[in-house]
User: What shape does this take?
Amino acid sequence: MPHPTLHPTTAPRLAIEVRGVVQGVGFRPFVYKAATARGLRGWVRNETDLVRIEVEGASAALESFVDTLRRDAPPQARIDALDVTEMPPDGGKSAEVSFSILTSREVASRRPAVPADLATCSECLAELRDPAQRRYRYPFTNCTSCGPRWSIIEGVPYDRPRTSMSRFEMCPACRAEYDSPADRRFHAQPIACPACGPELRLLDAGGGLLSTRDDALRAAVEAILAGQIVALKGLGGFQLLVDATSDAAVRRLRERKHRPAKPLAVMIGTLGEVRVRCDVSDAEADLLGSSAAPIVLLARRSSDRTIAESVAPGNPELGVMLPYTPLHHLLMVDVGRPIVCTSGNLSEEPMAVATADAIDRLGRIADVILTHNRPIVRPVDDSVVRCDANGPMILRRARGYAPLPIELADAPRSARVAKVAFRS
Assistant: This one.
C-alpha cells in the first residue's frame, strides 16, 4: 500500500478511511493513542461501515502515524482498505488543540463488517481470579480485547447505545475506565462490573427464583456435581450442562433431549487437561486457545476413561472446547471436571435464547436454569473445527467466526466445504 505524499506545509492534514473489521476491536482507542503519542490533532469516529479519521500535524509524525495504523492494528482488527487523502490544513479554524474520539455517525453505506464475539482474554481472566480486583468472580467482565460483540449488537455503528448493554448505566468506576486513554477498557462498549452490570439468577424448572449472583453460580455447580442437568444462558443462547464423567447423568440428558446417539461436545477446563484425554497437535492447541475458541474434533486417548462412554458412543473422536466466557471459566474451576456442553434445545429444534423460552422448552429437560439479564440479540451456536493435513476446516461457522466475511479470492482451488452430522 503506497505511502501518502505530503506536500511541504507547516501542518498538513489527512483524511483517512479504514474499512474492514475495525469496530468492536479497540480500533478507535488504538488510533487515539497513536495520534496523541505523536502530538497530532484531529479526531476519529465510527461510521456505519468504516472508521473515519482526520488528523493534522508535522509531516514526519503523520507518516509515522499512518505506518502505525497499517502495521500495529489491534490483534482482532482486520484492515481491508486504508485510504489516505491530503486535505487543506485546518489552520486552527476548528479550535482543535488535541485528538478526540467523536460520537459515531450513521450514514448510508455498504454492509458493514461487524465483529465476532471474542473469548475471554488473559488480562480479564487474571482479574477474574484475583480477590483484590473489583471484578473478582464477576461472570460478565470484558474489555476492548474480549467479550460479546455480534451477540449483543442491535445496530451499527458499533457503540453501547446500539447494543443490549444500553440497558445498563455505567457506574462512576466503569465510566472512569471507559473515559481513560490509559485504561484497557477505554471505549470498551460492553464494560460492566458487579455494581452496574448484568447479574446471574438461578431458577427452578418452572421459572421460580432460587438464588442470585454468586449464590446462583454455586448452586448451579452443586446441581452439576449432583448429576442434575443445568440449562445455562451462555453467550449466544442456552446450553445444557451435565457432568461429563457421569454416565447416568449423560444418559438422562440424552433421554430428555431426545438425542440417543449423536456425539455431545465437552468443555474441559485447561489445555493440559485436554492433553490428558486427547491427542492435541500444535495447530489444534492454537485453535482451542484462539479468540474464536471453537469446538475442535480431537482423537481420543484410549488410556483415558474419565469421560463417560455415552458422551460419544463408539466414536474415536471427542468434540472439545475450552471455557470462553468468564461464566464458563468460573463454572469449570468450581466443578473441577469436564462437563457436557450442548445446545439448549430438543433435538432438531432451534436453540432457546430468551429466558421465557428456556423455561417453556427447557424446563422439560433441565432441573435448574442459570440465566442472566443481558439480552441476547443475535443467537450464535458454538463453532466446530477439524484439523487435517491441509489445515483447519470449519465444519460449523458460528461463534467466534460469524459474521466475519469469508475471503474467496482463490475459491476455485482452495475453498473447503464440509457437511457433517456433528451437533454440539
About this structure: The chain has a mean pLDDT of 90. The first helix runs from residue 27 to 37. The chain has eleven helices and 17 strands. The domain at 13-101 is CATH 3.30.70.100 (Alpha-Beta Plaits).
